[in-house]
User: Fold this.
Amino acid sequence: MFVLYETPAGYAIFKLLDEKKVQEVDNLYLEFQSPEKANKLLKLKHFEKFNDTTEALAAATAAVEGKVSKPLKKTLKKLLNDEVQESLLVADAKLGNAIKEKFSVQCVYNTGVQELMRCIRQQADSLLGGLPKKEMTAMALGLAHSLSRYKLKFSPDKIDTMIVQAQCLLDDLDKELNNYMMRAREWYGWHFPELGKIITDNIAFVKTIKLVGTRENMANTDLSDILPEEVEEKVKEAAEISMGTEISEEDIMNIQCLCDEILSINDYRSHLYDYLKTRMMAMAPNLTVLVGETVGARLIAHAGSLINLAKHPSSTVQILGAEKALFRALKTKKDTP
Assistant:
């Protein structure tokens, strides 16, 4: 039985000298407490070193995608020339399936193999032998950076991704603000139900609650910075004859905390909207002038990118975001949007 062990420097093939030890998962770590014990259980059969970081990245990328890389093919061919009947222990089930299809080798992947790989990693310096630790560390660092860049797939040209994310976040904030406002109106409505009918603006409503507290303080509080004069008079008159219930200091404190949260989210939403507006004017000024920054950002989000939106025919742009309505209209044989 052989073990395929992947390192930043190359592929290592070990010969497992005692197959029963792998089945004893809980006690397997005891066999790797020292380099001497580890070398009694595993013997290095072959080590295929990568030529450079580029080759290492290609091999790592192939492994992530469940494909067999060229260095791995080369390694396995050398092994299979001698031992055809042996099974192979692998750290990744997807890679094991790819090896099995290509070389018709039985690949094993289970909890015992996972523990074995962890133990090999602990004694890798002594098991591999002849590979300087500094070189291994340098290759590991270089490969980690290269693989991270590959996974991120960052493109400096694709700044429209920021617009898509900002627009999606803006929509989420609008939903959250709406939910919080409904909760604040309903909650404070038990104490002063008339206030919600008089003040229709949500932010002005929240600021009033934050400043006044209970309705008893309404008559002695100056609301001129928040409300117009005629609205302020109506609010103070309604407070004197309100039919709402009395609430405790703890109740009003919690309602005011909710108001603080609403105002904080609203401030961030305003900041995010300004950011989106600036980005849209810089990246797609013509689209922004035609349809506005919000609709323009939504069109880019639905299309995936500005380039994709530019490639769409006008008939497709017309129904972006209205797919459900379109198919519903076609199904019911009514006018399409």
Observations:
- The chain is about 65% helix and 5% strand.
- The radius of gyration is 33 Å.
